[in-house]
Amino acid sequence: MESDWELEQLGYPQMKHIINRLPKDVTERCLARGIVIEDTTAGITDNLIYTEILSCRNLKSLVLTGVPDTSDRTIVELARMIPELQGLNVNGCKFVTDVSILELVAKAPPLQYLYVGGGVVLTDPVISAIAKTFLKLLELDLSEGPLISPVSVRDVWTFSRKLTRLSLARCSLLTDAGFPCRIKDRGKKPAPEDKPLPHRPSTWIGGLEPLMLRHTAVDMRVLDLSGLTEITDEAIAGVMVHCPSLVTLSLAGCTKLTDEALESVSTLGVSLRWLNLAHVPQITDSGIMKLARACTDLRSIDLAFCRQLTDLAVMELAGLKKLIRLVLVRVHKLTDIAVNYLADQTPSLQRLHLSYCDRITLKSLHHLVHCNRNLEHLTVTGVPAARRRGLGRFSDLPPETWPSDQKAVFRVFSGNNVRGLLKFLDKEKARRQRAESQNIPFVARSDDKMDLY
Hints:
The chain is of the alpha/beta class. The protein has 15 helices and 15 strands. Mean pLDDT is about 90; it is low at about 5-15 and about 185-190.
């Protein structure tokens, strides 16, 4: 296999990646370092990929998310023919099974990136083998693995010590047993009890000993635990101790979490930049206030469907000087007070989602777009005030597949449309003030004319 230096000495240009197509000729096959097939409409099938692998001997990375019929045969051939493979992404390729991944493990290429999520059905022994074999893995995606249990995930935490990104999203079997345990009350003797009953776990997984780790994942930057409906605050506490340098954290859909979990997340401090807490219904203003005061470098936070939150939480978040994205979809208790506070206190805000916040009025939205000149994206779908005549012409077009009733309430303003909305509301405000000064009844219109009749 020719090295990059040898190819350069022969006068060949270096090719980085081939995107959504296959190599055209022998030269491209020789020079190709990466093939990325993400477009499912490109017409590339498993048979074509299998044929190309025989020729691309210098391949370092392969992305096949756009080839959903990718099979074990192709991955086995890849493992056999490309010994220097560094990255493989077969997310969503549901015909890939334990057979081919075990072959990949047996050949042990120097993998640094492995994406086998999106519903790829792998079992615990294979996941454990991956963790114990590819010790230099930097990124691992196991999302939506229906058979992945705490047993194999414990091996990931134990052996994959160089990971910078890990996704365990929507692995339905995961519980607290699959995560590092917080070391607390060490050396403290438990209080005596009268005739203590023996512990009787409901399942064999419940009988696992707590995972006590002596090392920390100091390189971990991105962690996705969204959709893990069985994990509790205790698991999050252990993870925060083990991963002290997280930059991006997703806990969306972890329905059992409470403010105690947010207190643990707050220990990340200024390292945390991106946080997703959508559909975590038990969190309250108190937890968000502690989070905002500790994680002062937050850039993005998603609080969609967190129905217990009020204006107090938003006012605390408005103090984050670097906040550029805030999602408050269906946070029904929000009022104009929160929107006005964001307008006055958060000039850095670029994207704001307020869909289905029923109490917000057009007056506060006008103040928002007037003060936040950096605002590039505003979502107010389903807000009654946003159905005002004339606003619809500044909105982006709704998806064609949406039913007519949802299209009618669709209000998303982006780019120049935000500026157009501001000009329209400024003109309407001027007309209103003029009408009041002349004691003339004001009538809202959908045009841009300045006359009162």
